[in-house]
Amino acid sequence: MKFFVDTADLDEIRDLAATGLLDGVTTNPSLIAKSGRNMLDVIAEICDVVPGPVSAEVTATDVETMLLEADVLASVASNVAVKVPLTPDGLKTCRALRDRDIMVNVTLCFSAAQAILAAKAGATFISPFVGRLDDIGLRGLDLIDEIVDIYEQFDTFDTEVLVASIRGPAHVVEAARSGAHVATLPPNVLRALYNHPLTDKGLDAFLKDWEATGQSILEQAAQRSAAE
Ligand code: G3P
Question: Which one of 3.50.50.60, 3.90.1300.10, 1.10.10.60, 3.20.20.70 gives the CATH number of domain 2-192?
Fold first, then answer.
C-alpha cells in the first residue's frame, strides 16, 4: 500500500519524506488556503521534495477552464497529478488529460457508482472520502470494500483506489485490509501509526537492562578493530 500525505505544509512534507515511507502528496484548495502561500510555488516545492505523484486540484467547474488550469498545473512538474472533482465536467477533463498521459486524481467520491464513472474516464486515482461519510453516520470503509471489489472484476479498470479523508490509524489498517492501493494521511495520522504503548514499555526495559551491563556496541567495535 502506498502512503501519500494530505497536506500543503512543506515543513511537514520534508519531515515525513525523511522517514522513507512517503510515496506521494495530496493537496486540495482548503489545504492550499491553510498554507497561506501561492499555489504554484507550493506545488513546485512539494514536487522537488517528493518524486511520487503530487495532487494539485483545479478550481474551475467548467471543462474549458479546468483544462486551462490543468495545463498550468501539469507544467509545474512531471509528477503533478491533476485533481478534478467528480462532476460531468470533471470527468470530461479527466478523459482529455488521460488521453495526453497526464495523471489525474478524481476527488470528492462518495459512491461506488461515481467510482465506476471515474474508472471509465481513465482516472489514475479515485479518491473516496471515508471520514466525511462517517461524519454523516455511514461507514466510509464499506465504500472502499465496494470499490476495490468492483475494480477487481474488470481488467480494463486501471484506476487506483486512493483512500482520502482519513481520520485515524484504524481507517488506514482497514483500508489496507480491503486492498486499497493508496492511503492519503494527515501528518498526525501517519505519525500515530508508529505508536504502541508496549513498544515504548519494551524499549524502556531493554535500555535499562542494557545500561546496567555498562556495555557499548560502538566501544566494543573500536576495541576489536584496534586489536586487529
Ligand atoms: O484531500 C481530500 C481529503 O483527504 C480531505 O479530508 O479531513 O477534509 O475530510 P477531510
Answer: 3.20.20.70
